[in-house]
Structures are given as C-alpha cells and as structure tokens.
C-alpha cells in the first residue's frame, strides 16, 4: 500500500532531487514537425491563449456532442478541458524513451499540472516504486500489472485531480488501448506513453502500435548502433532465448542500424546452428 505522503510525492514529485541527472527541459524535446498545434506543453505566457483555442473549438461539435461535452466539463469542474491528449514515444531500446518521458513529465509538473507515472510491474530491474532511465535519472512511480487497476489504487479523488499520466514500458500493458481512450476521451487526461514499437524480431510489440490511431502525436526516437555508431532503429537480442518478453538491459540487447540488424540476425542464426550441431555431435558420442 502507498502511504499518503508517498501519494503526495507522486502527485507533486520533487524533480529537483534528480535534476542533476536530467538536462534542463526544453520545449524542443520533440521534433517540431511532430508537435501538434494543440500541444499541451506551452510556455506559461501562452497558456491562456491555449485555453482560449481549446474552448473555441467546442462549438464546432454537433449540438448533442457539445452538450454532453459541456455537461462532462461541468461535472469535472470548469477548469478541466473537455478532452485530453495522447502522445506516444516509440523507438528501440536505448533510444532515450524513458528519459524523454521523464522530461515531459517534469515540464508538465513545472507548469503546475498534477502528474503520475505508471510502469509495468514486470520490469523489476530498478525496484517497483521508481522509474530509472539507462542514464540514471529516477522518479517515483506506480508499478502495475494492469492499467485498469490504476484508478482504484491511486484513489478516485486523487485521480480526478490528475492532469497528466505517464506510462513507461507500455508494450507490457494489454489494456493500453482501452485505458488511454477512456482517460483521454472521457476523463480529460493528457497521456504520455513510452514504449517499444517493435520486439527483437521487429514485429509489433504488445498494444503500442494499436494506440497510434488514438494519438495526438507520435515520436520515433533512434539510438546509436552499437557496432558502427549510425542511427539505430532496431533492437538486436544478443542471446539465444526466443521468448518475446525477455526483460534485460545491455547484457541482452543492443541497438543496431538496419545493416547490423540483418548481419546480426545472420550471425545469431549461424551461432545457433553451430551450437545445435555440437549438441548433436555430443549426443552421438554418449
Ligand atoms: Zn550499424
């Protein structure tokens, strides 16, 4: 169970505690081409302008929808926007997805918004109550197996007050689509999702790609190829395990460019073949 003081710290995390590890937040953390005009991260002096735009867009809705949106807005309090936003950050491992998520959350928090971060309880590499990037930045978070349990565990009243929800390692949440749709469409939350778009076989991982049609913005980050230093788009598994969900760090995975992904896969298959044939030989001698 989380104590009230911990909940408060999650609602208003003290980012200064880890700021030495994080670069100063910049509004340019996403490429400008991918930032929608309705982006919620705006300098303070533009926030009134932003609110104005959001309110002005309401009359464009059909009458019945506008009424229900207004009713919902009234139920949720006059200051809450009628709908939220969904921003998705994808890329291979070691591309800085979690760092980017933390920066966004830090920025939202410094703009006075209530934030909370959720990560999968499957990833226990750095403890269950904090989120840590590969470069060591750390933030308190909620470790859950299902996103649907968040509202209840966080507390309904606290949830109502929440503005921004960050979700890390989103590929591990089966109910990602439903949670994001509900939280953004009906609860007015801004959701920032970070996760792997593809697994080590370059196939869609979990439900991350399913939420692209729901998203306001999508950012694909790249890493550096561990073998040649070029931009890396893929994650190569260095060991033989073939289960899709194998949680590990640099001991198991490395970011690679297209060329080295292909040659790496060939090398892995050759190694597997050699190992298999050695097993057969050993077997024949016994
Ligand atoms: Zn390479």
UniProtKB/TrEMBL annotation:
Q: Which GO terms describe its molecular function?
A: ATP binding; identical protein binding; metal ion binding; thymidine kinase activity
- Could you tell me what reaction this enzyme catalyses? thymidine + ATP = dTMP + ADP + H(+)
Pathway listed:
Purine metabolism; Pyrimidine metabolism
Q: Name one Pfam family in it.
A: TK
**Keyword Chaperone set for record:** no
The UniProt entry, under PROSITE patterns, shows: TK_CELLULAR_TYPE
Say yes or no: keyword ATP-binding present: yes
One Gene Ontology BP term is:
thymidine metabolic process
Swiss-Prot/TrEMBL keywords: ATP-binding, DNA synthesis, Kinase, Metal-binding, Nucleotide-binding, Transferase, Zinc
Listed EC numbers: 2.7.1.21
Protein name, please? Thymidine kinase
Alphabetical list of InterPro entries matching this protein: P-loop_NTPase, Thymidine_kinase, Thymidine_kinase_CS
What is the similarity comment for this entry?
Belongs to the thymidine kinase family.
């Amino acid at each position: 169970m989380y104590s009230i003081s911990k909940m408060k710290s999650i609602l208003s995390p003290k980012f200064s505690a880890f700021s030495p590890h994080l670069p100063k937040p910049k509004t340019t953390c996403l490429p400008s081409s991918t930032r929608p005009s309705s982006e919620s991260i705006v300098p303070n002096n533009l926030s009134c302008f932003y609110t104005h735009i959001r309110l002005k867009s309401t009359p464009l809705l059909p009458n019945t929808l506008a009424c229900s949106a207004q009713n919902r807005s009234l139920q949720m309090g006059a200051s809450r926007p009628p709908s939220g936003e969904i921003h998705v950050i994808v890329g291979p491992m070691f591309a800085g997805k979690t760092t980017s998520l933390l920066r966004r959350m830090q920025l939202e928090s410094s703009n006075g918004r209530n934030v909370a971060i959720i990560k999968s309880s499957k990833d226990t590499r750095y403890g269950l109550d904090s989120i840590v990037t590969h470069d060591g930045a750390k933030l308190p978070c909620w470790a859950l197996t299902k996103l649907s349990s968040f509202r209840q565990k966080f507390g309904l009243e606290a949830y109502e007050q929440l503005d921004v929800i960050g979700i890390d390692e989103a590929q591990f949440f089966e109910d990602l689509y439903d949670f994001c749709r509900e939280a953004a469409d009906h609860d007015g939350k801004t959701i920032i999702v970070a996760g792997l778009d593809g697994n080590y076989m370059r196939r869609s991982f979990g439900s991350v790609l399913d939420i692209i049609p729901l998203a306001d913005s999508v950012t694909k980050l790249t890493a550096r190829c561990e073998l040649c230093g070029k931009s890396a788009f893929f994650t190569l598994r260095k060991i033989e395990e073939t289960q899709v969900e194998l949680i590990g760090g640099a001991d198991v995975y490395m970011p690679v460019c297209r060329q080295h992904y292909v040659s790496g896969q060939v090398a892995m298959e050759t190694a597997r073949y050699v190992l298999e044939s050695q097993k057969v030989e050993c077997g024949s001698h016994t």
